[in-house]
Amino acid sequence: MARKPLGVGIVGLQPGRSWAAIAHVPALRSLPDDYEIVGVANSSPASAKQAAQASDIPYAFADVAELVASPAVQIVTVTVKVPHHFELVKAAIDAGKHVYCEWPLGNGLQEAQALADMARARGVLAVVGTQARAAPEIEYLTGLIAGGYVGEVLSSTLVGSGRILGPHVNQVGAYILDVRNGANMLTIPLGHTLAAMRDVLGDVVELSASLIHRRTSATVAETQEVVPMTSHDQVLVNGTLHSGAPVSIHYRGGLSRGTNLLWEINGTEGDIQVSGPSGHTQMVQLSLKGARGEASSVEPIEVPPSFYEGWPKEPSPRNVARVYARMAADLRDGTTSAPTFDDALAVHQIIAAIESSAGSGLRVPVLLPGRPASDT
């Protein structure tokens, strides 16, 4: 007998423009055997009704409390702005629902720690949307590195453009300019990429960092209003991996006319490059190049077609769908393949170490969950 799809309630859906509309709805609908979108809750009943009608979703909940209380909802998907994650995820966990929360999990390490603890204590599956980890290119790259394509990793260098925190911003994204909101270049594009880097290369165990302001304002595209920018638009990190290999990172605000993503992994037997149109590895098409042995220059590495077959064509819904597929498998089979709140906590720890080092001017350990400080 066919199993019944899991009912999903989405918090924060604006048809045609929100991340939920662009990525989550098509991702979930690409997995009809696993999921059914049963309802939506927004900031008002009228907004929820409009979103449900426009997206052909059966039910518009009056508020989040009604959504999490519904027996039709087994999974609560939280796709709102970062400052609201804590209260909404907590409500879902308190109701005993499984959760898919967009990254960053919380507005800072303390919120992330509390949510991870709550989910663990309640025994729910709590998944975080660090979907770059599920990108076909990252998954294939992980296998190449583990299989010895470059031999022993000697070093890694990452340069990326954050796209956000450039000279212009739209009204919806203007909240990223205020560092207090926890949604900026360090936490979003670099945070997603750090989650993928952990899969490929292992943990960063110590680092020194600088967070720098070069732009102090941005212009809102729709109104031409000049708004102060307190979020940093230059992030520089010099770290050491658990293997002992050094890693260097530079993310810069806006987009470059040249390189917008170049991640190199250099080893005793070969080299690999990852490139893309921006540093948002979670939502762009990535490309791989490599060379090993006697080869003198890198050449394209083709990811096997099987990594793409059966998934949405566009990277954003494809990568999100691949996380949802892992989540469904974990609920069905008891596996542990989807990125959890504990995984999110590890990335928040790296970000906290970057902020600590930048503030103190010191090289600091990354105090990863479950690892004592002496293990660095």
From TrEMBL:
The keyword Glycoprotein does not apply. Keywords: Oxidoreductase. One of its GO terms (molecular function) is oxidoreductase activity. Residues 7-129 form the Gfo/Idh/MocA-like oxidoreductase N-terminal domain. Coiled coil: none annotated. InterPro entries: Gal80p-like_C, Gfo/Idh/MocA-like_OxRdtase_N, Gfo/Idh/MocA_oxidrdct_glycsds, NAD(P)-bd_dom_sf. It comes from Paraburkholderia xenovorans (strain LB400). This is Oxidoreductase. Residues 136-276 form the Gal80p-like C-terminal domain. Pfam families: Gal80p_C-like (PF22685), GFO_IDH_MocA (PF01408).
